[in-house]
Design brief:
single chain, about 10% strand
Length: about 290
């Protein structure tokens, strides 16, 4: 049932009056006492105690002596407290800065320990540490995992003909090319010498072969390496591909199959893009 509104003559409870709003730039919060007032009060108390001690000294020497000792203790405690507070704030800032420095140092050491300084890719150590983890995860969830090993053909001839500095330039150039043409989820590493290795999570044999063919084709088409001194010199790499679980369920089996596929591709005559990629044909024994 709908309520009947009260008549005009009926008394209604009066609403509380709103508090007066502060003017612009003012606040209802009481202003804090200035620090100089507090310090002045402390100084005044000590001055009164000193005067009182001086006046009552002849009458109550022992009491005055005890008061003086108490004043000394209080002053020493106050000074100690102030110094400790300032030192504590300084120590907090120092510890925070030291912690940030250690964190940056740890990141820098991690980067040095797991990256190849020449190519900018991961190094052999990181590759061998990550491959067991990625393989275990792939086998647990039933996903494929592929490994690609790349080898620079005739790299020794580049070193012998143009020098080791130019060989290093070639490896650094290949590292940049590989990093630009793989997924962010892939792990690209310098495997050793003139060999590179890639871990491709959730990638079957067909997709891995496409990736390997893409890399060999991209590398073979580039002529702009060597800082312009060797422009026109052809680059050529071979690739071996192995995929888990069909090529093995262990790190050793997977790397053995990838190595075998790599050297199979290197033994073929280089007549085209397909000849540069070897696919392992081994099947896991059940």
């Amino acid at each position: 049932m709908r309520a009947v509104p009260p008549l005009e003559s009926e008394e209604r409870p009066s609403a509380p009056l709103p508090e007066e709003a502060p003017a612009w730039g003012q606040s209802n919060t009481p202003a804090p006492r200035p620090a100089w007032l507090m310090r002045g009060g402390v100084i005044a108390v000590f001055a009164i105690l000193l005067v009182w001690s001086y006046l009552l000294g002849p009458l109550f020497p022992r009491a005055v002596e005890q008061i003086g000792e108490g004043i000394i203790v209080v002053v020493a405690a106050a000074v100690t407290f102030v110094l400790a507070a300032r030192s504590g704030r300084a120590n907090v800032h120092l510890e925070r800065a030291y912690s940030e420095h250690l964190e940056r140092l740890s990141e820098s050491l991690h980067d040095i320990a797991y990256h190849d300084s020449l190519t900018g890719l991961y190094n052999h150590r990181y590759f061998r540490e990550q491959l067991p983890h990625e393989l275990e995860r792939a086998l647990r969830y039933g996903h494929p995992l592929s490994v690609i090993i790349l080898d620079v053909n005739h790299f020794k001839e580049v070193n012998d003909r143009y020098g080791h500095l130019m060989g290093d330039e070639l490896l650094a150039f290949l590292g940049r090319l590989i990093a630009e043409n793989v997924r962010s989820t892939d792990i690209a590493a310098r495997y050793g010498g003139d060999e590179f290795a890639l871990i491709l999570p959730e990638t079957d044999s067909t997709a891995a072969k496409v990736t390997a063919s893409k890399l060999t084709e991209v590398i073979s088409k580039r002529r702009d390496w060597g800082g312009g001194l060797l422009e026109g010199v052809a680059l050529d790499v071979s690739a071996g591909v192995a995929t888990s679980p069909q090529d093995g369920a262990s790190v050793e089996d997977l790397l053995f199959c990838a190595d075998h596929a790599l050297y199979t591709s290197k033994s073929r005559p280089m007549t085209g893009k397909a000849a540069r990629v070897g696919i392992s044909r081994r099947r896991r024994l059940v």
